[in-house]
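Listing 4. Sequential folding, example run.
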Amino acid sequence: MADSEKVLEGFICPICMTEFKAPNQLTKHFEDFHNDDPEILRSLKDLFGKAKKKILKQDEISEAFTRALPSAKQPSPELNWGPQEIGAMKSHTAYFKEVRNARLERYSTETNKLLIRLDKLLNNLPSDPVDRKVHERAIVPWIDEKDVKLCPTCAKSFHVARRKHHCRLCGAVMCHTCTVFLSLQEARKMTSPVSVQDDSAISPTSERPIAERIVRAGIGLTKLARSPSSGSLNSVLALVNDPAGSEQHFRICTHCASLLDAREKQKAKHFDKPIVCQFYEKMRAYMEEASQHVKMYNKMWESLSEGESTYNLEDAQALRVKIAKLGENIDLISKRISVLGTRCVENPPQEQELRLHHMVRVSAMIFLKEELLSVQPLPSAEGYAELQAERQRRLEARIAYERQLEEEQRDRSKEQRKRETWNAEARSAVKENQTVVILNQSHGWGPSNVTPKMPSSMDPIIEQMSNLRAYIKQARDDCRYDEVATLESNLKELQSLYFTMKQSSNSDG
């Protein structure tokens, strides 16, 4: 019956139906008992090779089968199934954050422990070496030296030349090669809330030679360095010879040093600005300066176009040259930002960074086009002279028209005065204590032309004119042309006043 038949599994000989556990056993069986037909043995070996490749996913597609497949660029219309639904998706962000946060928390916890211990070590630190060692062991318990046979970092055995040393922050036992020295100055900077870039926190004694275990690795960042001594005997001799100088550091292991150094680097990143930020800040400063100069230039151009003499043509031309130089600087900096980092092979800029550089370049071009390239050209010296002559003609015509209106008004006022003379007596009787006095230019009223005569030795007008000339020069250098115009008008008034005074003094003499 079919139920009573034995089920054969594994590698079975197709001739004698013998069961084997491995393919090499079946091959050896064929070579020993069925070697009369070599074709069967060869086909069996080929079958085993193909099966092995299939299992290991190393089966290669034949060239004929590859040529028979349709090209991927030209899909067959029979195989086009249309749009398909998106399959199941799974986000691993939560798992990644969980793993990352656990690791970061572990590192931050260990670093905070080291900082707390370092702060306790610095608090009331004795100057005597024996008392200092007792203080260090009271803050951080040391591991017993008998329990450590090898250095945990380099796995070297301890002997007379390689003595055991304890880390002052974790209490572990290390050899001299696997320890570093942290100066007290750097330890205070790590535990204090003062910024690492604050130069005021560095005392005058912080500039020490390299033998004091501190090597500068950049602005605001310090790197821990090993002691240059070759053995513990040198340390003992240094302690005997110079006990005060040898107490300016803590001996710590390389693991604690790496954690503290990583924290210092992380703090330094908050103060370092990328090069693109520095370029952009400089470009923005040029833009603001150019905008202020453009506003002043437009005001001067409007005044000069009307033929006014408030501003000087040479000052406007010098201001236009400054605006052109600022535009060149803005264009050059924006070009540098657009190609920033593109030649770097190891760390090329990403897509968002390249887009940011491109947008900075576009904004700079828009500013140059709308603000600087739209300034109006100044008239030439001959054109400015013609504008002044035209303005003079307009002023003369306006003065003549105003004089005509003034004469007509004077005639009208005379007629009105005749009408009011008949009622003057009646109104004077009613208002005895009030007298109406009408003073105008027709009655000869005006400012007095008499000026006090001052001695020449104490004349302050000359001193004021010299001061005004100095102020005009200073304001012109600072491109404050509104003040230049005001000061020049004041100078002209002083000069006319001084000339009037001289004429009156000569006539009196």
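-- end of first protein; second protein begins --
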Amino acid sequence: MEPLRILISNDDGVFAGGIRALAAEAASRGHRVTVVCPDQERSATGHGLTLQTPLRAERADELFADGVGAWACSGTPSDCVKLALASLLEEPPDLVLSGVNHGPNLGTDVLYSGTVSAAMEGTLEGLPALAVSSACFQWRQFEPAARLALDVAEQALARGWPEGLLLNLNVPPLPDGSMAPLRWCRPGVRRYVDQFDRRSDPRGRTYYWLAGEVVNDLESAGAGPQHWPTDVAQVHAGGAALTPLQPELFWRGTLGALPTLPELLSAPQE
């Protein structure tokens, strides 16, 4: 494969081991790699943008492998990709990668994920984009996920990457030879219990800490082929899950299932 221009971001910040592993893997394959990522952890920021304060970006090449150009940005993951595409890069990239995230981005959690949102920003700009996550917070070996992410991205580009497609890859916390085969998956539904821990500060004032525990629902899913496993079930079984996503939120149910609003809608709509 000809060398690619690759933009890499994340939501764990410039000092995270996952993004260093991903950038090093891409550079080792001869690709031209630029990192633009938050200057500190900004997990679960979703697709938020910074509107009320200026963005600042400082060079951070010394934190990465030789040949990797890097910027640490004061904004969100989506800010980083927007800033890179609009101002920091001399040429548009051939591919946007986000990760390797420290922890899973499965099912409906992608709606909150800064990692997935950074990749989605590339998709919105018409670029091939892939988000990759290591699906365990305790696992620190990011190299298998980085290798698989580059393998998937390179093959997808070689075979034709459909416009508007975002690939979301979740890799189980296992060495290369111990993983079950990679499979296409549909997004599961992630549910949490006891989401907020109520506490008191030293002055007796109440505050709340988001600390919900996930319920492992392996079967519930939204859209997608019924014979595909959910991404939650696939990772639980020790396999890597590859889920095709797109930035299209239009209702996929039947129009007949929509609420009847005769007094508000001006005319019947087909």
